[in-house]
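SEVERITY: medium
COMPONENT: batch folding queue
REPORTER: lab tech (J.R.)

DESCRIPTION
The queue accepted two submissions in a row. Attaching both inputs and their returned structure tokens so the on-call engineer can compare them side by side.

ATTACHMENT 1
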Amino acid sequence: MELDKLTEEIIAAAIEVHRELGPGLLESTYQQCLKHELNLRRIELQSEIPLNVKYKGIALECGYRVDLLVMGSVVVEVKSIAALERIHEAQLLTYLRLGGWRVGLLINFNVPLLKDGIKRRVHNL
């Protein structure tokens, strides 16, 4: 599936979750519900992907985990916070760089309108 179409599908699934649950729940709840919604749509995903840091030729496990990796190509970071900050965008871009992926979505479910909580970022490799 083409990346723009895939991100549209992921956003549509996130909107469905937000319509059902609204804001105010834990990040883990939204992550599980988004996984379920994507599975219902038959969209392949992996969750809690360990992300190593390569340092001087050695891969080191430093505790980083990607919330969702959809179709092996789109990183989705799920948040439930008062407001997205620059550090959250930096985190997403770092994950893209470390994992070698191009496209990521940062989704904050703790907003009245989900469209206000979505950021799409592209890392040019």
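ATTACHMENT 2
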Amino acid sequence: MSDGPKIVHRTEQPYVGIRETITMSTFNVVADRIPELFAWLAARGLAPAGAPFFKYNVIDMERELEVEVGIPIATAVEPDGDVLYGTLPAGRYVAFTSVGSSDDHIAAVADMFDWAAELELTFDMSDTDAGSTWACRLQVLNTEPALEPDVTKHETENLFRLAD
């Protein structure tokens, strides 16, 4: 973990996204849709208001994950086709930056969970039959993988919403 966890306050943020139900082995299905979102925005004359992200809605590592690839925008828009409109919730988040491959990222998340447990922090999530359901769990891509082929240099900002 290159930037240790801290608690941050975020305002709500509108975004557009595409939702997919995937497995860990088919994660590229959702990742490969990032260019589609950029093209959707460009076709409407809209500029991104931040870096693309993955929003994990439901996580069951053994079965399926419901994940959105999203891009922050400045104002509300009408959804169209596969592209949905949403708002990332305001609130307190645990935030940290990780650098490296997906294995490095998984280790950084585990370290963050240990840190949060020591502080007795409660995340805005619940366990359901479908898996862990999150109010907002983000993985913001600070490094564009297509532009930086060396995965050891990939920087990701991670944000996990805390319960009120």
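NOTES FROM REPORTER
The domain at 3-161 is CATH 3.20.80.10 (Multidrug-efflux Transporter 1 Regulator Bmrr; Chain A).
No errors were logged for either attachment.
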